[in-house]
């Protein structure tokens, strides 16, 4: 069973207890990420938050995302030349990543002990965290691909 991610109010209380200054803009960004199952880019967060705070800058969004990531409240998912995506789910979990539309879905992850191979112990490597992703095609992209091949 996947551990329950911390809610917006739980995360807000945690940050306040640590003495973190939470401006209205920071609160709205945190709330957006905690209440969505999507994995938005910084630009997508900026567009969404801009609806509520028309004067917010992209730099403020990036700085807030970086601060929340450093505090362990959200996760950054980097994909090489693709934009980073941000995940409000702060639990250990895996992702399904569609290679066609880039949609990302959270799924339960096997415990770290099940993923550890003998090679890890052999190299005396201490694991702090890990990221597990499966790449393929989401149902919508499969249907579109099937439709394209039927039309040929």
UniProtKB/TrEMBL annotation:
UniProt-listed GO biological process terms: negative regulation of DNA-templated transcription; regulation of secondary metabolite biosynthetic process
Residues at which Zn(2+) binds: 98, 101, 138, 141
An MF annotation (GO) of this entry: transcription cis-regulatory region binding
Binding site for Fe cation: 113
Domain of life: Bacteria
Swiss-Prot/TrEMBL keywords: DNA-binding, Iron, Metal-binding, Repressor, Transcription, Transcription regulation, Zinc
Co-factor(s): Zn(2+); Mn(2+); Fe(2+)
A matching Pfam family: FUR
Record flagged with keyword Cell membrane: no
Family: Belongs to the Fur family.
Protein name: Fur family transcriptional regulator
Source taxonomy: Bacteria, Bacillati, Bacillota, Bacilli, Bacillales
């Amino acid at each position: 069973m996947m551990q329950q991610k911390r809610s917006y109010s739980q995360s807000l209380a945690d940050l306040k207890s640590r003495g973190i200054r939470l401006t209205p803009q920071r609160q709205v960004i945190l709330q957006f990420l905690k209440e969505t199952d999507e994995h938005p880019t910084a630009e997508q967060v900026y567009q969404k938050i801009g609806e509520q705070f028309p004067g917010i800058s992209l730099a403020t969004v990036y700085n807030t995302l970086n601060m929340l990531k450093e505090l362990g409240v959200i996760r950054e998912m980097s994909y090489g030349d693709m934009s980073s995506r941000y995940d409000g789910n702060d639990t250990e979990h895996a992702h399904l990543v569609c290679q066609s539309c880039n949609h990302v879905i959270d799924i339960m992850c096997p415990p770290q002990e099940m993923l550890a191979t003998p090679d890890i112990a052999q190299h005396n490597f201490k694991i702090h965290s890990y990221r597990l992703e499966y790449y393929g095609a989401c149902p919508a992209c499969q249907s579109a691909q099937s439709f394209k091949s039927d039309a040929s």
